[in-house]
Amino acid sequence: MKLSVIGTGYLGATHAAAMAEIGHDVVGIDVDPAKVASLNAGVVPFHEPGLPELLTAMLGTGRLRFTTDLAQAADCEVHFLCVGTPQRKGELAADLTYVDAAVTGLLPHLAVGSLVAGKSTVPVGTAARLAALVEARGADLAWNPEFLREGKAVADTLHPDRIVLGVTSERAEKVLRDVYAPMVAEGSPVVVTDLPTAELVKVSANSFLATKISFINAISEVCEVVGADVTMVAEAIGHDVRIGHAFLGAGLGFGGGCLPKDIRAFMARAGELGADQALTFLKEVDAINVRRRARTVDLAREMCGGSLAGMRVGVLGAAFKPDSDDIRDSPALDVALGVQQAGAAVRVYDPHAMANARTAFPTLAYADSAVEACRDADVVLHLTEWREFREMDPAALGEVVRQRNVVDARNALDRERWTAEGWTHRALGRRSI
Ligand SMILES: NC(=O)c1ccc[n+]([C@@H]2O[C@H](COP(=O)([O-])OP(=O)(O)OC[C@H]3O[C@@H](n4cnc5c(N)ncnc54)[C@H](O)[C@@H]3O)[C@@H](O)[C@H]2O)c1
Ligand SMILES: O=c1ccn([C@@H]2O[C@H](COP(=O)(O)OP(=O)(O)O[C@H]3O[C@H](CO)[C@@H](O)[C@H](O)[C@H]3O)[C@@H](O)[C@H]2O)c(=O)[nH]1
User: Fold this and answer.
1) Cα separation of 409 and 296, whole Å?
2) What is the ipTM of this complex?
3) Which string of DSSP letters, residue by residue, matches 27-95?
4) How far, in Å, CA of 395 to CA of 41, rounded?
5) Which residues face 2 on adjacent strands?
6) I need a surface site. Which of 27, 286, 342, 416 has the fewest CB within 10 A?
7) Quick one: which residues bind NAD(+) (predicted)?
8) Does residue 188 contact residue 180 with C-beta atoms inside 8 Å?
9) Distance 45 CA to ligand 2 centre (A)
10) C-alpha dihedral (344, 345, 351, 353), degrees to nearest 10
């Protein structure tokens, strides 16, 4: 089938390459000419394991190309909307400017009988509003939310754990089942529903994930008061299959371009709909999450004898999670800024997010390696659990620091190994050994 993918960022570039991989003829369209040129040259403009190889292979087949020209979508049967829906400045609500611009721009090129399939995460009610515009052109609109995780985007797209089809006609359902035929054949469950339910599935899933993380981080706060160990609590409760181990990783909490803005936009939308009371717990989920960042700064301060003024702090990690260069709402960079504001000299290192971090936070100092970030440090902060950091040799790092103090804000370092090398190890939700 001929498909267009409108918006080729983290979601759209992956979706476009994956659709070509399963045999479709795909044109990716973005308003950013630099991004389009880069993708056409086989260079993914962000870090996503496996995507460069897939992109190169798909460009080679001739089934995938990128352009800034929406007119090139005119002969496509399906148009996937993958543009951003960031948080509005100074508000909780989502900014729908890009979605509206993409649909308005597409309307003159829409063939009668074609299908617009929204993948962006939107406030409930958006799809019905857009459907009226699309239907007036003789086309159809569906909502097909996306659940991929950054760092695992290729596998998640090619082997989704479910496919959600919000549709208003049997024809739209059939077209999307044809698009995803290999995934359906492989056994991915397909949930067919109406437009608002499909929109709600997406924000409900992210709200649940955020709630699970903040739940264990709330327990972490209590563990800190009583001297208990949150990692053991998580392990023990996770053995109950009704609870499960996933997303009980206590630590610095969630960031990124999805969970934080999605729970805020959900609260804002519920407020607009007069259902704000239903989601007041998400305010607490957000507050618990943000408190973990302040607690990490406090731990660093405690390790430096009560004040960070004049101290040197080595920061390991800038991305919001490992295997991504995404720094949107990154807890690591928030902590780095907090420590700097408290008077410390901070040096940050991340294996893949340095360029993004430097652009967004030019006032922070950066180092070219983990060792250089930690040279002469009074405390090392482990904030993003990249494999490179988890496998670091604490003995070698101990040679370059001023004091062997480490805060493991992701509960991911082998603390027995670090303490055996003379490090004072502190972690969120665990007493020291
Ligand atoms: N990143 C993820 O892991 C992920 C996963 C699931 C869902 N989502 C949702 O997908 C959407 C996109 O997220 P993202 O992380 O890929 O964002 P992104 O910022 O990386 O990409 C958005 C892209 O859209 C382009 N764009 C903006 N206006 C456009 C227009 N009018 N026409 C064409 N292109 C336009 C931008 O230039 C950019 O390249 C959001 O709604 C997000 O919540 C993201
Ligand atoms: O036990 C855990 C698991 C995750 N995190 C943090 O939570 C954030 C989000 O992690 P993750 O969900 O793995 O990354 P995303 O790529 O943001 O993916 C989420 O957001 C996407 C965009 O909506 C959805 O498609 C995915 O299903 C959803 O998992 C990161 O900061 C993690 O460090 C924790 O603190 N503890």
Assistant:
1) 7
2) 0.99
3) EEE-S-HHHHHHHHTT--SS--TTHHHHHHHHHHHTSEEEES-GGGGTT-SEEEE----PBPTTSSSB-
4) 43
5) 25
6) 416
7) 30, 35, 85, 121, 150, 261, 328
8) yes
9) 21
10) 80
Q: Which residues have C-beta atoms less than 6 Å from ligand 1?
A: 6-12, 29-32, 35, 82-85, 98, 101-102, 105, 120-121, 146, 148, 150, 257-258
The whole-number average pLDDT for the span 394-418 is 98
CB 130 within 8 A of CB 92: no
Tens-digit pLDDT profile for residues 140-155: 999 999 999 999 999 9
From the number of C-beta atoms within 10 Å of its C-beta (0-12, 13-18, 19+), residue 84 rates as buried
Q: Within 13 A of 156's CA, how many CA atoms are on the CB side?
A: 15
Q: In this structure, which residue's CA is closest to atom 30 in ligand 2?
A: 254
**What pLDDT, on the 0 to 100 scale, is given for residue 431?**
87
Phi, psi (deg, nearest 5) at residue 245: -85, -20
Q: Give the bridge partners for 408, in sequence order.
A: 382, 427
Substitution site in 144, 162, 209, 293 for ligand 2 pocket (most atoms within 8 Å of beta carbon): 209
How far is 181 from 228, CA to CA, in rounded Å?
49
pTM of the model: 0.98
Sketch out the chain's domains with CATH numbers. 2-193 (3.40.50.720), 194-433 (3.40.50.720)
**Residue whose CA is closest, atom 5 of ligand 1?**
148
Read off the tokens for 372: 């250089």
Residue 44 contacts residue 55 (beta carbons within 8 Å): yes
Query: How is the beta sheet containing 25-29 ordered, strand by strand?
Result: 64-67, 25-29, 2-6, 78-81, 115-118, 140-143, 163-166, 190-193
* Res 276: pLDDT: 86
**Shortest CA distance to 82 belongs to which of 7, 13, 24?**
7
Answer positive or negative: Cα dihedral of 342, 348, 350, 352: positive
- The protein residue whose alpha carbon is closest to atom 29 in ligand 2 is 149
